[in-house]
Specification:
binds alpha-D-glucopyranose, about 750 residues, 5-stranded parallel sheet, single chain, 26 strands, alpha/beta, 6-stranded mixed sheet, Immunoglobulin-like
């Protein structure tokens, strides 16, 4: 009998690998066919038509009519792609013109920012990052692709993969957080979700890894600002998420607005040709960001529009978003020999290759069978699940979960803010579909009284405070939902202070005078500094901007139907003055420590100049964040009993097994995100004090003990040094297994050459 099973397993293995071989063979045959079609088309295209393919025309999503000029441009083959064409009839009409009337019948690609949902809005990407769950990322982008492709969209400008270490930056809301490993895991999943199993599936949309590169390193967290990034930092922090997206075969890449070390990303030949094409073998196409080509004039990098086109083309930018430097100048530049036609041909090949992979030549029109997918029950359910898994509990004195019979004072400007709850990048989300906390309380038959207390997050009028205090006094518990309106988050919305805006802190202080327990719920696009009020509240839930189903997710968590499962994807500062702050920082020559540190108001009057700890800290904010990267509480507690390593010494190409024994010491079942951190103690360049190298979501029954195992390869210890050589180096390594980046059971091993 045993031989029979072995035979069956063997046959299955052979047929699977045969299927894989067949699949690979089919893909390569397709690719060969595509290259043949591309070369054939190229041979027939005029210079104007080739330049036309590099033109991404922007239109207003609120346009009521289609301009004749645009239709004529499409008819002449002078447009390659279109952005923000939102009326289905316009999409169909323009595509019909392109495939039936243009010289070579090349289909258009229709693009839209579908960042964290199209109609069903998921939590903002920083919230999805807080789930630490690649399935959530993949599901959110898969559903966004299904909903958006039904109206003809086949290209989105996501995932945004900018590592963000400064919560003042408005676009941290859109980012995967501060860690390259977590961002890489999520980036791959987003691409898989958007692009599906096959890019030519009608519900698949081309993804776009953006913003290449280093956009999140803007000085002062000021959007669009200067970045200074060393080569090791580029290779060890900012590039890995893009490499992960490229390995997932992301179809397109978008250049960033910022300059890097003096050279704007959009005209950066080293980054676009040497790194992206040469080193990373990218074979899709690169699009600029919105007018980021002509912004090279403002940068002081280009003299005029023609110079812009010359710089961008010679740097290897395939397609220009909304500005017309290419349209107006490429022909002359080629005739003058300043840009080669071969270079233009490469642009056209890259663009046509993605159009072929999307299946647009065979099926240029949207799949009408894929209608009415908006707000499907299954989509809403998954959005709610994502909001639950993204919610991070930062504090809980035991007030949560609430008893179902609790009489709740539901107070705050974000209790019933259906538009703001969706967060930034929700052009197509409809607030009418948002389930707010108020909606959820109503349908769940909870005993509550509601008053906003403030009309919106920036409001300063306290005229409703007295009524709010009265409602709070008459209740068992206060659920205070505060935060940021969506407009305070996202592109061009950096803030110097990241406190709660308006009079929200004053409202919390007034409510605290009632001595009623307070559950603080924060809906925002970034960590919010709550140092001034943390002692006035009993529990803190960070929901980020949780999307369409945020209210229902919150209600489930408040009453214990679900457990808050999020972990911080960014360090949470005590004050904006600490920023930029990130856990994977260097140790410096004078690392701060608790023995030396004297807080500002503990310093004796007349203290001797050198009497304080001479190390790296703030007198008035210390040297740690308010809450560390990876932190998050649940409704039970875990004890990390021990950690072991399979070997004390490993050689290169060997793996090491790390085992941790963990116990759920609580009376509720719960989930722990077990995190593995590694420190390369001495390197040819200084190395971070620790780096995330793995994490696992582990479910425990009450009282249950489990052994959690990680396999660490010596390859994962590699880094890029100052000679741009990527390698692991012999020496001592520390590891921690724990619940977040500031704790864990420690062990060590030696990597031997
Ligand atoms: C914006 C953003 C970019 C977006 C593009 C198209 O300025 O920087 O992320 O995809 O323009 O809307």
């Amino acid at each position: 009998m045993k031989q029979y099973y072995i035979l069956v397993v063997l046959l299955c293995f052979l047929s699977c690998s045969k299927n894989e071989q067949n699949e690979k063979k089919a893909v390569s045959e397709n690719e060969e066919k595509y290259e043949h079609i591309i070369n054939k088309l190229l041979s027939k295209m005029t210079l104007e038509e080739k330049i036309g393919q590099t033109n991404l025309r922007g239109t207003s999503s609120r346009a009521k009519t289609l301009s004749e000029e645009l239709k004529q441009q499409v008819r002449a083959g002078k447009v390659g792609a279109l952005l923000n064409v939102m009326k289905i009839e316009f999409v169909d009409e323009l595509q019909k013109i392109a495939v039936e009337e243009s010289p070579n019948k090349i289909p258009l690609i229709f693009a839209r920012d579908v960042i964290h949902g199209f109609k069903t809005m998921f939590p903002i990407p920083l919230g999805i990052a807080a789930s630490w769950d690649e399935d959530i990322a993949r599901t959110s982008s898969r559903i966004a692709a299904i909903e958006s492709s039904s109206v003809g969209i086949r290209w989105t400008f996501a995932p945004m993969l900018d590592i963000a270490r400064d919560s003042r930056w408005g676009r941290i809301a859109e980012s995967p957080g501060e860690d390259p490993y977590l961002a890489s895991v999520l980036g791959k999943a987003y691409v898989e979700g958007f692009q599906g199993d096959s890019l030519n599936d009608p519900t698949s949309i081309a993804a776009c890894a953006k913003h290449y590169i280093g956009y999140g390193a803007a000085i002062g967290g000021r959007d669009y600002n200067t970045t200074i990034i060393s080569k090791p930092l580029m290779h060890n922090v900012y590039l890995p998420p893009f490499e992960s997206a490229l390995n997932a075969e992301v179809a397109t890449v978008m250049t960033a607005f910022n300059e890097i070390n003096g050279v704007p990303a959009t005209g950066n030949k080293f980054l676009l040709k040497d790194v992206l094409r040469g080193k990373l073998k990218f074979d899709g196409f690169v699009v600029s960001d919105w007018e980021s080509t002509i912004e090279m004039i403002a940068h002081g990098y280009a003299k005029n529009e023609k110079h812009v086109a010359e710089l961008a083309a010679n740097a290897g930018l395939d397609m220009e978003m909304t500005s017309k430097a290419y349209e107006n100048n490429l022909k002359a530049l080629i005739e003058e020999g300043k840009v080669s036609e071969d270079q233009l041909n490469e642009f056209v090949k890259n663009i046509l290759r993605i159009k072929l992979r999307l299946g647009l030549f065979e099926m240029p029109y949207r799949d009408t069978k894929n209608e009415a997918t908006f707000y499907k029950k299954s989509h809403l359910e998954k959005a709610k699940n994502a909001a639950v898994k993204s919610t991070v509990m930062l504090k809980n004195t035991g007030v949560l979960p609430l008893a179902k019979t609790s009489k709740v004072a539901l107070i705050g400007p974000m209790v019933d803010a259906p538009l703001d709850q969706m967060g930034t990048w929700t052009f197509d989300g409809e607030k009418e579909h948002t389930l707010t906390p108020l909606d959820a309380f109503k349908t769940a038959n909870i005993n509550y009284n509601f008053i906003p207390g403030l009309t919106h997050s920036r409001a300063t009028s306290k005229k409703e405070f007295k009524k709010a205090v009265a409602i709070a006094t008459a209740s068992d518990v206060i659920v205070c939902v505060v935060g940021e309106e969506a407009i305070l988050s996202g592109e061009a919305h950096s803030r110097a202070s990241i406190d709660l805006p308006g009079a929200q802190e004053d409202l919390i202080k007034e409510l605290a005078k009632t001595d009623k327990p307070i559950v603080l719920v924060i809906m925002a696009g970034r960590p919010i500094t709550i140092t001034n009020i943390i002692d006035d509240v009993d529990s803190v839930l960070m929901t980020w901007h949780p999307g369409t189903m945020g209210g229902e997710a919150l209600q489930e968590i408040l009453f214990g139907l679900s457990e808050p499962q999020g972990r911080l994807p960014v360090s949470w500062p005590k004050t904006a003055g600490q920023l930029p702050y990130y856990y994977n920082h260097k140790n410096t020559g004078r690392p701060a420590n608790k023995d030396d540190f004297v807080a500002i108001y503990d310093i004796p009057v007349g203290a001797w100049q050198s009497s304080l700890g001479n190390d790296s800290h703030y007198l008035d904010a210390g040297y740690t964040p308010h809450f560390p990267f990876g932190y998050g509480l649940g409704y039970t507690n875990f004890r990390y009993d021990k950690v072991e390593v399979s070997k004390d010494t490993i050689t290169f190409n060997e793996d090491i097994i790390i085992k941790a024994t963990i116990t759920n010491t609580g009376i509720r079942a719960g989930k722990e995100v077990v995190q593995l951190y590694v420190q390369d103690v001495v390197g040819s360049i200084t190395r971070p004090v620790r780096e995330l190298k793995g994490f696992q979501h582990i479910n425990f029954e009450p009282g249950e003990t489990k052994e959690v195992r990680f396999k660490l390869s010596s390859k994962s210890l590699e880094f890029t040094n100052h000679k741009s050589v990527k390698a692991a180096e012999e020496g001592d390594f520390n590891i921690w297994v724990g619940p977040h980046s500031a704790s864990g059971l420690k062990h060590s091993f030696y990597l031997k050459n």
